[in-house]
Amino acid sequence: MRRWLLAALLALFAVPASAQTAAGQTDRPIRVIMPLAAGSAVDVVVRIVAERMGETLGQRLAIENMTGASGMIGMRTGARAAPDGLTLLAVNDAVLTMLPNMNSQAGYDPLKDFAPIGQIVRIRWALVAHPSFAATTVPALIEAARARPGQIDYASGGAGSPQHVAMEMFLQATGLRMNHISYRGATPALTAVTAGQVPVGFFGLPTPNAFVRDGQLRLLGTAGPARIDTFPDAPTIAESVPGFTFHTWGAFLAPAGTPAPVVARINGALREAVNHAPVRSRLEQLGYEVVGNTPEAFAAALASDHATMGTLIRSANITME
User: Fold this and answer.
1) Which of 109, 112, 116, 315 lies in the 20 to 30 Å Cα band around 149?
2) Signal peptide position in this chain (predicted)?
3) Choice among 6-10, 233-237, 301-305 with the minimum mean pLDDT
């Protein structure tokens, strides 16, 4: 009996740490690498969702903003982390579908180096300007940029960021030229526009919402196919530039090789969180479109968006410069 008990105990302690994690037998915090600035659209949503996920998992989600090189530093760090369920990435689609299509030296493969967990939300976008800027509408901006080619500045969260790509797509659609001012993340870029240091920029909602309501920013237009409830009086850009739309999304990933039971467990916590009434209500009030899909659905969407964005980036000749 004693020999059997000793053997059983030895077998238990011989279980690898990754297997213990897969079975949910740890209360260690989960490190969440976010290659985005604090206060950005994805940062806001992840902090709302992470609290509920932590309650479900019995593990705190510790969010670590790791900006730099337009998010590539954080992505490389996450790709090389141990696939044990104790490191996740919270990302926007830019670092998966845009940057790697612009930079062959990104240092990670968006389709091979990560295990998709699930998309959290889709993010609506808007073109905003400082109130001192003479152009108060999208048509007025087009007219001003046409009169002063390459002389009007716009802000972005870095070369290859969604703010950069959104504006370059707008410029491609209108045949205009503007001057790109790059910042280290969406939040400092928005701060620059709010302070009047740069006149205009694209940003994901709800990041600029409070500034728009307080009169510190002017909303020129939203980037969806239809007007939105958050700002029902704001025209869409497509009303002046037919066919123009732009949106992004936020999602969770794990390093490639993370065991399927771990991925399923975290995905379950994600889907429970976004469908938890107080969480879902908060996200929708802020203007997010809740998704909460499966790892399989996310993987398919990622592959499709990566291919589509690659085609758009090449056709518009958008570069990291």
Assistant:
1) 315
2) 1-19
3) 6-10
**Which of 125, 92, 105, 110 is CA-nearest to residue 231?**
125
Whether 18 has a pLDDT exceeding 70, the answer reads: no
Give the model confidence (pLDDT) of 23-80 as tens digits. Answer: 344 689 999 999 988 988 899 999 999 999 999 999 999 999 998 888 899 999 999 9
Helix 260-274 and helix 41-57, axial crossing angle in degrees, nearest 10: 110
Instruction: Kindly state the helix (H) or strand (E) to which residue 121 belongs, with its residue range.
Output: strand 114-129
CATH of 29-122+247-316, one of 3.40.190.150, 3.40.50.720, 3.10.290.10, 3.90.950.20: 3.40.190.150
Distance of CA 272 to the CA centre of its chain: 20
Identify the pLDDT of residue 20: 44
How far is residue 154's CA from residue 59's CA, in Å, rounded to a whole number? 41
Place of tokens 């007219």: 143
Question: What are the tokens at 208?
Answer: 């600029």
Give the number of residues written for the chain: 321
Contact in structure between 98 and 65 (CB atoms under 8 Å)? no
Full DSSP string of 7-38 = HHHHHHHTS-HHHHHHTT---PPEEEEE-S-T
Fold designation for 124-239: D-Maltodextrin-Binding Protein; domain 2 (3.40.190)
Which position has the token pair 């903003």?
A: 65
